[in-house]
Amino acid sequence: MTPRPLSLLCELTYRCNLQCPYCYNPLDLRGYRDELTTAQWTRVFEEADALGVVQAHFSGGEPTLRGDLVELVGAASARGLYTNLITQGTFLEDALLDRLLAAGLDHVQISIQAPETELADRIAGTAVHGEKLDALRRVAGRDVALTLNCVLHRLNHDRIEAVVALAEALGVARLELANVQFYGWAYRNRLALMPTRRQVAYGEAVVAAARERLRGRMEIVYVLPDYFGDFPKPCMNGWGSAFMTVTPNGTVLPCPAAAAIETLRFENVRDRSLSWIWRESPSFEAYRGTGWMPEPCRSCERRESDWGGCRCQAFLLTGDAGVTDPACSLSPHHATMVALRERDGGSVAELVPRRP
Amino acid sequence: MPVERPRLGKGVRLRRERDGTAMLLVPEGALVLNETAAAALELVDGQRSIDEIVDAIVTRFEVERAQARADVCELIDRLSERRLIEPAP
Asked: Cβ atoms within 10 A of the Cβ of B55, count?
């Protein structure tokens, strides 16, 4: 039986006014300029609801650059979907916020690049930190859930304590500290962004202490960099198991980073129903379940807890999306990953800012 | 000891499926609920006290009062820790 998708990531546009070098968006954005229309997205929400999806996450690029964002949130909300806006916050003026809340928006996630203006603006490639803080303060006072997010990497990893302090001062109920995952622009910039072992150990200690101190006041979600673990992350909880992503041009992906897998052909909602794509398309079937697994996954007792790790990472590091994620210490390609992380003290490579 | 008159936190929604099963939708996730937990959370409205919620559960399900109270308190404590339940203002 085909599993039920619970979560739909709606990448409304890849346009963005920031140039974060850790962006997971594809390197070549030219194919995504022909964006789905309001009516096409509305059909996607209807089909997603019929498939059993309960949450719609609006992301990008920067989703507030879509002029019809309020309408889209309203359309998803009207189908009973829980709506989550993932934004960098610089366009979140009070008037837009009013309209989004009236349309039924349930949750806002605002990202910062660092806790201090100078570093944050350097990472974003433009002076926006002040506007972000302003948006955070205004959303915190509204009747909507708010998560503060900060993507961690070598440049800001030592500032975790200050990020926690900022979240505390803002009074947010939820803080997400996610180590950068190496896809898209982040993969291109991996040598400059890879945290050091010392940074990761320090981060874990800071988070553990903050969680203890803030119990019941703030939930801290901390995502470890899988380059530093012994086993891979259960990416998407399994390919085609619970998540799907619709990109700005209507391509449907089992994982937000999957467009990088050149050996698969992904379907588009302009040509096929979401239901067919989820249930029957070769791309969703390719790595669903455990039948596709080679050794060492096939006979591994963890195969139904980490699902062989991430297919996109396997492709990026080995050229084959159908092998064990090299993040796994049992993978024959694990040395490739170890070599990438063991560069402590080496010269810091130059960062390439994301371009539109 | 949980809060006296609990309510759902911001961005927390109880959802009933077409087949009657219940889910708690929360920022970036969904928790599948058993029938007792769903019935308790349907009464978490910032008005009712823990005792009133326990009364309703005992009336509706075949369960000892002490057990029902322990279960409701545990559920509310666990969700309060993540701020998915908050005290009424």
From this structure: 16
